[in-house]
Design goal:
With about 80 residues, the chain is an alpha+beta fold. Helices cover about 35% and strands about 15% of the residues. It has a two-stranded parallel ribbon with strand order 1-4. A two-stranded antiparallel ribbon has the order 2-3. The longest helix has 18 residues.
């Protein structure tokens, strides 16, 4: 029987320590200015998009399926970058 893990943490710190998986679920900060502890949620749009794409690439290194929950305003830019 397979194991299911739910890990709460910064994926850039946690992902490198994990074995390969079937799926990774991401709920990244949405760059809306929310006050997080230890993360600046107000980046320039291009900087945020580059950061988000880096997170997605790292996630796909661990699993063939990456489920991303984020603010809809970023989806068109992410989809354009993903096609490149």
């Amino acid at each position: 029987m397979s194991k299911t893990w739910i890990i709460h943490g910064d994926c850039m710190q946690v992902l490198p320590m994990l074995p390969a998986a079937r799926m990774v679920f991401l709920d990244p900060p949405d760059n809306l200015g929310v006050k997080y502890d230890g993360y600046e949620d107000r980046r320039e749009p291009l900087e945020y998009l580059e950061w988000l794409m880096h997170v997605l690439r790292r996630s796909y290194e661990k699993a063939p399926i990456v489920w991303r929950a984020d603010y809809d305003q970023h989806s068109p830019q992410v989809m354009r970058q993903a096609r490149v």
